[in-house]
């Protein structure tokens, strides 16, 4: 694949990501989108649970397998290394689009906040969660995380070196601010339906499992640097560390979240 084609491919994947990310906000929050977590054709509860569980499982399996170093080593024998990350983003986008399309609502109420203050507070917290997710990507390397850096640097004739990161911003107080932001966004709602609750429980469970895999890989890559960071900074609940966690670390050829990115 030529450098120009690789960059155009990564741009298409990135633009698709922007669309799916914005749609995710509307999907989870029941805002401004034609098909949300609580809308669409109704089915029986059992069938809805089955379909929704399969959709979430597809996302979890794809995300977990394609993020593993062993898979990447084999995958880059087929896919050029420069577009490996963009291809990961493309597959993720496709599964999310499938989820938006095929998700079955389960409309039984779990809680409904009636007060205006409560509604405003929870809606604001929902927005804050998504903002944390987005800002956290820029506190590491947003364009490496989504595959653009890997094709842009070769295009302009610069070597693709491993990115260097500092544990700045949110990464000083929580090792996984992106995941923390997702948890906040998924749970903060003034109207929690059964379908939304199922989505929130399953995605939170996957986040906890994903963090375990991620940290295992990071320890293998970074050794004592990451172990020290892990001792000083909390995993998912923001908390100011007792010691400074600002040492610069270097990662390999893929970007992950801690304290680099996922």
Describe the structure.
The chain has one domain (3-250). The radius of gyration is 19 Å and the shape is globular. The chain contains ten helices and four strands. The protein has helices spanning 3-29, 45-66, 69-75, 84-102, 116-138, 142-145, 149-155, 177-187, 194-222, 224-232; strands at 109-112, 164-165, 191-193, 249-250. The model is unreliable at 245-262 (pLDDT under 50).
Which regions have little confidence, pLDDT < 50, spanning 5+ residues? 245-262
How do the strands of the widest beta sheet line up side by side? 1-3
The chain-level mean pLDDT equals 89
User: Would you list the SSEs in sequence order as H and E?
Assistant: HHHHEHHHEHEHHE
Largest β sheet strand count, sense and barrel closure: 2 strands, antiparallel
CA-CA gap between termini: 25 Å
Percent strand: under 5%
Shape: globular
Q: Rounded to an integer, what's the Rg over CA atoms?
A: 19 Å
Structural class: mainly alpha
- Tally of DSSP helical segments: 10
Approximate helicity band: 55-70%
Number of domains: 1
Number of strands: 4
